Input
Amino acid sequence: MSNHDIPEENLPERSTAHGEVSVPDENPFADPGLPPHEHRIQDIDEGAARRSERTVALLFTISMLCTVGFIASYFAIPRDKSIFVFPIGHINAMNFALGLTLGVALFCIGAGAVHWARTLMSDVEIADERHAIEADPETKQKVLADFAQGAKESALGRRGLIRTTMFGALALLPLSGVFLLGGLGPKPEEKLRHTLWAKGKLLVNMNTDQPLRPADIPVGSLTFAKPDGLEESDEDFQQQIAKAALMIIRIQPENIKDKRELDWSHDGIVAYSKICTHVGCPISLYEQQTHHVLCPCHQSTFDLSDGGRVLFGPAGHALPQLHIGVNQDGFLEARGDFAEPVGPAFWERGAEK
Amino acid sequence: MSSTTRNASRRQAPAGERVADWADGRLGVYSLAKSNMRKIFPDHWSFMLGEVCLYSFIIIILTGVYLTLFFHPSMNEVVYHGSYVPLQGQLMSEAFNSTLHISFDVRGGLLIRQIHHWAALIFIGGMLVHMMRVFFTGAFRKPREVNWIFGFLLLVLGMFTGFTGYSLPDDLLSGTGVRFMEGAILSTPIVGTYMSFFLFGGEFPGGDFVARFYTVHILLLPGIMMGLLVGHLILVFYHKHTQFAGPGRTEKNVVGMPLLPVYMAKAGGFFFLVFGVIAIIAAIASINPIWAIGPYRPDQVSTGAQPDWYMGFSEGLIRVMPGWEINFLGHTLVLGVAIPLIVVFPLVLVVIAVYPFLEAWVTGDRREHHILDRPRNAPTRTGLGVAWLTWYFVMLVGGGNDLWATHFHLSINSITWFVRIAFFVAPVLAFLVTKRICLGLQRRDRDKVLHGRESGIIKRLPHGEFIEVHEPLDADQLHTLTAHEQYEPAQLGPAVDENGVERQVSRGEKLRTKLSKGYYGEGNQIPKPTVEEYKEITSGHGHH
Ligand code: HEM
Ligand code: FES
Output
């Protein structure tokens, strides 16, 4: 054992040297050596061995039958048939049949092989030597000398100019790759600060696709809205809705606690971003009595009667409110974009106004 | 060579040998087989855990390649016309559309999808348990530290491969997970916004991420993992397997059965067993039924959204973190997201990677170790391992706080506070309790060696006292229970060196001494019985 470089005196001793069987009188804890091999029933009884053989063969045969069953199921079972299997319930028949036949076909091959190994193959334990991994000192010296020789012949140490320029060239080269990666995306610029909302944009009901009037928003309801003109079939629909999604509720104006919220509401109707300020899940649960909304992802709770303030959960700032009003035709409209970025916070987001 | 001798030699050598000869002349297979064909592998149930990982990886690759034949990694919106009636006519990405196609219109497609997903869960779970086996038995010690790192990288990359795969179908659940990831990236100070724009090709969700994740999922990460896996196995062969202490087993040998035939049949058979079990699970247990969840829309969400289990601890971290945000000079530091996901998440993983080096530094032991520790014989290490696991599970619990709340009618608020406190307290408790248990077990082993095993036979002594008869252990057991090595705690050494000059004791050295006491000092391990103690007890009055 390579004990040579251990400065510690506290390493335990390795007393029992390899293979050495000490006399128990001297050391009762000494390694008694490999125990004698114990015969299995199959080693001494040919009948038992033959039974094992038959078991293995049976398992392999079941496997073959299952593969045939797999092929039969593949053709015979209609793709959409569903069956009732106790206790799982209704499941797709084809998936069940294919999976089961394949699974059993595989399993039986495995079970057969393992049974064969355990009962019929020799189970005599054998000891193999281990060899130290570390090279002996001569090998080490030889390698170091070879390396020194090679390094000397390259003259890298002496020719400083070559060395410096080579390392310089190799160090600069990866920059090309870094710049190529620049094409992965556009710069963020101000994109996260703007949504489709703008002065005069109508609030359109997400479900009915109709512009909303104040009368469409009863107290206690939660309505989802999108900006007029944004259609599901639009190419950038997903990006736009990821920022513009809106939820609208109605509160008795006297119950609105926040002054700005009241200013930006219309007759108790308030519009808030639907995108959670934590990491961006859409908020979906509304508590009518308290006007709290809950994000289903990590349970951040916001008070929509108090400026969208965070009441509970991991969100770091209030939900942004959209300033709304009613146009001359009596439809709800936005009075501008959100005053601050919607959704999760980011480095450039800056202080809340 | 005349034609007759050539014919003669051709008739003599069987076909298999001739193929082997051909290969030997070109690849040197005989020399390779000489050292490997009858290579010895020790047997223990826990040594199969690594095999579970290997086999599920192979299953993942086989089924994954099949899935690529049908999957379209594109976010172009199409109208669904397939055979699943409830979604007909709906707009969805091609990725989602093709996953529906695999599930409903390709014969056996659903089975392969479900095998792929189940195998992924088992793969990552298997790696975690396998790693625990290696940890608690000390198999990571020299010379196997590099292989520990390989395994660690496989675990981390496996998690990310799973995450990217989970995101590919572009369904409502996985899209929510991707959004979560975007929020985490955005929280990175200074570069977060750029990173997010570069990853998504612009604003979230954009039209690129499925195609990009696809390349990462099927080529980049599996390619790296394949390399690491091969390296991992080569090292296992090269180091030869570790073994538990026992009669005839030493640091200089390895005792077991040869690769050909026993281990080949057992391990080869085990591949079929694992594959068979996963196929049966996929036949009866549905996983990720994306049709019931629907295509991704950034403004919609399903309640009770949960990631695959191996991401659950990050979910827990982010749920219980208070929502700290600092605004200064027009910038925002999103600590509430950055601390759990950018700092703690990697930290939880990195402590695993560095542990072997920490322990080696504390022991100062540079010898090779091939005999495994029983976890009880390394109480501090075992305690630390259990503390880590506890930490991990506390966060998993936190990740499902809404599920606990609804199932057990608890308030989210109290669960969150419970998890917050448990995050700091539970690992410490787990550490102390585990160490206690280990020491108790060590004491029991010591008693067994010195006083024999309790036989269950009650004897009445002449003066009326009842005692239980203790049977002495045989030589095999005596050796097995005393074979472990015990370190002495490190000493700081004299404050003055041999020339009488005051020695500067570095802070690192002081810390090391302290840690060493914690590992091996008095009360932190039970001294194993010495030969003298044993002889004194056995020579006298037999038992008691
Ligand atoms: C090595 C570790 C891997 C893990 C942990 C993994 C995991 C996953 C998971 C969890 C899914 C989601 C399946 C679903 O429920 O829909 C998935 C999808 C997919 N994976 Fe993998 N995978 C791995 C490797 C591979 C490889 C090597 C390939 C191909 C060569 C591949 C091809 C695919 C494809 C095409 C899909 C999307 C199809 C679908 O979702 O139905 N995967 N993967
Ligand atoms: S995304 Fe809403 S709480 Fe996390």
In short: Residues 41-125+137-184 of chain A form one domain. Residues A 276, 278-281, 295, 297-298, 300, 313-315 surround FE2/S2 (inorganic) cluster (ligand 2) (CB under 6 Å). The radius of gyration of chain A is 38 Å.
